[in-house]
Each structure stands twice: as structure tokens, then as C-alpha cells.
Design goal:
Layout: E1 2-4, H1 7-19, E2 24-29, H2 35-46, E3 50-55, H3 65-70, H4 75-85, E4 89-91, H5 95-98, H6 112-115, H7 118-121, H8 125-140, E5 144-148, H9 152-164, E6 170-174, H10 194-199, H11 202-219, H12 225-240, E7 245-252, E8 266-275, E9 278-287
Parallel strand pairs: 1-4, 2-3, 2-5, 3-4, 5-6
Antiparallel strand pairs: 7-8, 8-9
Helix pairs in contact: 8-9, 11-12
The structure holds adenosine monophosphate.
Length: 289
């Protein structure tokens, strides 16, 4: 695996790989790699061709400067993990390479998809995401780009950007990888205290319970399962983790992210909860049976 830091060098290496007949799979990350990232790299590897992984803590997608400052960084460890998982090229640019002095462009997806949920609680976050992902796509020019379902809304926003701007890349989703107790892997989990780590189990518990709640709501022939479920889950959070603070617990259409009332087919339960000073997000599809 080769480590690259400049746009010129990544372009050169990608051109070389293409000249050898390889397609390009790309996994963008912010580093502090865990099994969730590694599963995307392995998925890219299994699809064949050359696999490029980027590690770049993108300052423009952090609406909270403290969150950016506290974000875990360990490039040597990340490089070893990338290589083990099968990456061919690791692209880890400095911020000045991505946003040189005088940088002024933005790529935006407008509308409810970026205004709702994460967009509401983290203003400007998705503008930073779409801008950096568009730039990384221009730098790497991948055939396929892999994004985790853990960040469901981000996945939908990136798909919309690619569709609306006719970007020649296929967005490939990867399933959420979880700890043995169900907590979704996240680079922010290392910031949880021992106590907070135990409390965090409430998040996968809520998501698992959501399916059971939908089953009983359906048996009771309730039609507005969305709002009912949301209320039940809020109560469950309050009783199981009284000092946790939910930014949102929502039952939404998986594509549009609009709240749903009646669940006729499937819905996405998505949550953002502050536990022990750490903001955790997670989601799960539930189905009407
Ligand atoms: P990040 O480094 O947090 O920006 O994440 C980089 C990519 O890894 C994104 O596409 C995330 O959705 C994905 N990812 C993060 N955590 C997980 C997880 N637990 N399972 C699967 N994919 C994940």
C-alpha cells in the first residue's frame, strides 16, 4: 500500500491503475478507523480493482470547533489497518492541500434532505460533507464509492448529489457494524467513559425495541404508528437513561426522511442522543409484518 498526501500524486497513481485495466473503488473516511470502516474497505476489495482510502478530518463539516479539536487522530495506526484490510492507496492530505489559501467554492444539496434531522441539529454539516466528497471524487475519480448505512442521512445526501450533478460514480452502501452489545461502531465511542459506555447500550436497545413496538401497534390496528412509536421510544429512553438527552428520535421514510404517520411497508427509526457528553447517532429499518 502506498501513502499519498498530494492531489497530484493520487491522480497519477489512479491513472496508472486505470492504465493497467483496474477500476477504482473509494472509501472516504475521517480516520480513527474501526471495524465499520474496515468492512467498507473489504467490501471495496471484494468488488475488485484498486482500492483507495482517504483519511481526512474535514474541518468544514464540524459545526462545533470543540468536536473538531477532540476528534481522535492516529495516522500510523490507520495506515496499518488500511493495509491489512486490503487498501492499495491511502490518501491522507493536509487541510491546506484540500483547502488552499483563498479557497472559496462550495457544493450544496438544498432542500429537506439536508435541512431535517442532522441538518437541523448540525447547521452547515452537510454543506461541508457534500463539498469535501465532491472534491474527493474529483481528486480520486472513483468508479464506486462506499458509504456506511450508519450515517443513513449522509448516504442519502451523497446519492442525491451524485444524481443531481451526474457524477460518474456508483454509491455503494455498507451495513452498520456493531459492537457485541449492539452499539454501532463510531470513532466517537472512544470518548465515552466506562459509565457512559454502559449507558450507550440504550441506543441499540431503542432501535431493537422499535420493531417489537411496531409489531404490537399493528396488532392493535393503530394507524398512526409513526408518532405512537416515537412517543413510546422517547418514554423508554427517559426511563432507561434519564440523563441522556435526545436531539431527536424519529420514524421517517427511508428515502425522503419525512416523518411517517402510517407505516404500510417499512420505515427508518433514527436517533441522535447525547450520552455522557458524547453525541451518538444510529438508525434501523423496521418493517410492517
Ligand atoms: P467517518 O470516518 O465517521 O466519516 O466514516 C467514514 C465512513 O465509514 C462513512 O461512510 C461512515 O458511514 C462509515 N461508517 C462509520 N461507522 C460505521 C459503522 N459502524 N458501520 C459501517 N460503516 C460505518
Amino acid at each position: 500500500m502506498e501513502k499519498l498526501t498530494t492531489v497530484g500524486s493520487v491522480r497519477f497513481k489512479v491513472r496508472e491503475a486505470r492504465a493497467q485495466g483496474h477500476t477504482i473503488g473509494f472509501v472516504p473516511t475521517m480516520g480513527a478507523l474501526h471495524e465499520g470502516h474496515l468492512s467498507l474497505i473489504r467490501q471495496a476489495k471484494a468488488d475488485g480493482g484498486t482500492v483507495v482510502v482517504s483519511v481526512f478530518v474535514n474541518p468544514t463539516q464540524f459545526n462545533d470547533p470543540k468536536d473538531l479539536e477532540k476528534y481522535p487522530r492516529d495516522l500510523a495506526r490507520d495506515a496499518a489497518l488500511c493495509e491489512e484490510a486490503g487498501a492499495d492507496l491511502l490518501f491522507a492530505p493536509e487541510a491546506s492541500e484540500v483547502y488552499p489559501e483563498g479557497y472559496a467554492a462550495k457544493v450544496l444539496v438544498e432542500g429537506p434532505l439536508t435541512r431535517l434531522l442532522e441538518g437541523y441539529f448540525r447547521p452547515g454539516h452537510f454543506d461541508g460533507v457534500t463539498t469535501v466528497v465532491a472534491k474527493l471524487f474529483n481528486m480520486v475519480q472513483p468508479d464506486r464509492a462506499y458509504f456506511g448505512e450508519k450515517d443513513w442521512q449522509q448516504l442519502q445526501v451523497v446519492k442525491k448529489m451524485v444524481r443531481d450533478l451526474d457524477m460518474p460514480v456508483t454509491v455503494v452502501p455498507g451495513p452498520t457494524v456493531r459492537e457485541p452489545d449492539g452499539l454501532a461502531m463510531s470513532s466517537r465511542n472512544v470518548r465515552l467513559s466506562e459509565e457512559g459506555r454502559k449507558k450507550a447500550k440504550v441506543v441499540p436497545y431503542l432501535l431493537d425495541t422499535a420493531q417489537d413496538l411496531l409489531d404490537s401497534a399493528s396488532r392493535e390496528m393503530l394507524t398512526d404508528q409513526g408518532p405512537v412509536l416515537r412517543q413510546w421510544l422517547m418514554t423508554l429512553l427517559e426511563s432507561n437513561a434519564p440523563d441522556a438527552k435526545a436531539d431527536y428520535i424519529a420514524v421517517v421514510d427511508p428515502d425522503t426522511l419525512f416523518d411517517v404517520d402510517e407505516i404500510t411497508d417499512r420505515a427508518l427509526v433514527t436517533v441522535a442522543v447525547h450520552i455522557d457528553g458524547v453525541r451518538l447517532i444510529d438508525n434501523r429499518i423496521i418493517v410492517r409484518r
